[in-house]
C-alpha cells in the first residue's frame, strides 16, 4: 500500500481515537497530569538577553536564535561577528537623573535608542560555556520518537535555551524546530505545526487562525504521545486549549488534527518499514 493510501486509511482510525481523546479532554472529570516538563533556561549571567525586556527577547527569538549580543559583548567572550552578518535592532531605554520634590534622585525615562546586536550563529571564535551543554542535549536527539519524520520532511531539530515563556518553537522562516525541554509532547506539538504547515492547513494570519493552529498542534501532540508510549499530559493540554480558546474548540480541530496525526504516523511507518 502506498503512503497516501495508508495515510487515508489510517485517518479514519485516528479520527475515531482522537474523538475519544477529545471527549476525555472536555469531560468534567479530573484528567491526568503526571508529566514534569523541564525547561532549559540559561543562567541569566551566562546569557545577557536573559535580562532583556520581553519585547527584545521576542525580537531575538524571531531572528531564530536564543543568544544575541552587541559587537563588543561578543569580543569580550572571544568571539567575532562574521563578515556580512545582519544586525538585529533592539530597543534600549535611556534614563536621566532628576531630583524629586522630596529630595530623592529618580530615573526618568528619556527615550529609547536602537542598538544593533548579532546572533550567536553569526559569530565565530571561542566556544561558549553553555555550547557544551547544548552539544550533550543534541546527542540525545536520535532517541527522540518521530525525529526521523521531521528529518524526512526537511525540518531540522535541535535543542536551544528558552529566552522567554516557551518550551519550544517551529520557525517557518528557517524550517526548524527548537526544543527547550526534554518533553516529547513539546516536540510532537512543534512537529504537528510543521506538518500542518506543510499540508497547507496551518493559518497564522489572525488571532483566530493562530489560536486554532495552536489547538490543532497541542491536540495532535497529546494524541501522538499516547500512541508512541509517552505519557500524555492531558492536564497541560487542557490548560493550553483554554489559553487559546475554549476546551470545546478541540472538536473544531478534530478533522485537521487527525489528518496531521495520520500523516505523521504514515511517515513514521514508512521509516520503520
Ligand atoms: Zn504552538
In short:
The chain is of the alpha+beta class. The protein has helices spanning 3-26, 54-62, 71-76, 129-139, 147-152, 184-198, 207-227, 234-243, 254-272; strands at 68-69, 79-81, 88-99, 105-119, 123-125, 156-159, 168-171, 176-179.
Question: What would your notes on this structure say?
Answer:
By secondary structure, the protein is an alpha+beta fold. The chain folds into two domains: 3-39 and 128-272, no CATH class; 48-125. Helices cover 44% and strands 17% of the residues. It is built from nine helices and eight strands. The strands form three sheets. A three-stranded antiparallel sheet has the order 1-4-3. A hairpin with a 5-residue loop joins strand 3 (88-99) and strand 4 (105-119). Helix 1 packs across helix 9 (254-272) and helix 6 (184-198) packs across helix 7 (207-227). The termini are close together. Bound molecules: zinc ion.
Given the helix and strand composition, which structural class is it? Answer: alpha+beta
Counting DSSP H or I runs of 4 or more residues, the number of helices is 9
Please, what is the oligomeric state?
Answer: single chain
Largest sheet: 3 strands, antiparallel
| Unreliably modeled segments | none
Beta-sheet strand percentage?
Answer: 15-25%
Tally of DSSP β-strands: 8
Mean pLDDT across all residues, rounded?
88
Shape call: globular
Order of helices and strands: HHEHEEEEHHEEEHHHH
Question: Between the first and last Cα atoms, what is the distance in angstroms?
Answer: 12 Å
Task: Provide the spatial order of strands within the biggest beta sheet.
Answer: 1-4-3
Q: Number of folding domains?
A: 2
Question: What percentage of residues falls in helices of 4 or more residues?
Answer: 40-55%
